[in-house]
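For the sake of transparency, this paper describes our internal protein records without simplification. Because each token names a local backbone shape, the row as a whole describes the fold. One such record is reproduced below, unchanged from the form in which we store it:
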Amino acid sequence: MSTAFEFDSKEFASSISVQVPHVEGTYDLTPDQVLLDQAEHESEVRSYPRRLPIAIKRAYGALVEDTRGQIFLDCLAGAGTLAMGYNHPEINQALKEQLDSGLPYQTLDITTEAKDRFIKRVKAFLPEQFAADSVIQFCGPSGADAVEAAIKLAKQTTGRNTMFAFRGAYHGMTNGTMGMMGNLGTKRVALDLCPMCTLCHSHTACVARLDLVVMRVLSKAFATSSACLMTTKRAS
């Protein structure tokens, strides 16, 4: 066992191993009862559990403990959203202070002092001229929501309805993002989400239509402003 992390929180450090496990043999990755319950009660659209068949009990830093007590070194980091790792003491303390402050759990798009501070700190990282001529749009919690917002913004700004995307790219699982995607494996799972598939029953036509769109707009692509969630005030 080699020490990987040193934590300030003695309580957490004593409740979960802070050492990288040296595994002899293989872990038990057969579905336990929690995973079986998930398969029974959750929809078929879940994706990560199919590749990572574990049920998480607790986590700290880059270490995750499953419901069997097996320790994993996590390289996923919440799909890149947890750069500080799990249950970082400073983040936990900030969350507790926020909850104790009386601020509502969510306020739609109504502003708060916390939201105002966040926006100003984000813009402080940007070049001064760009920050002065930009605004921030708060989307939903997933990347697909951000892509959907970018598509709408691009259409509204340019006045055009056609879009182009790279074949084989992955953009999300919403209807709009799947329409921009040439990943046939993903579309095959959600066959009924494509309005044309019910007519042609073939994904080949989907790719052909995508190629046609690319050819139509590629010549104009570099003349079109990029759709960005951090966009100029004029575009927003």
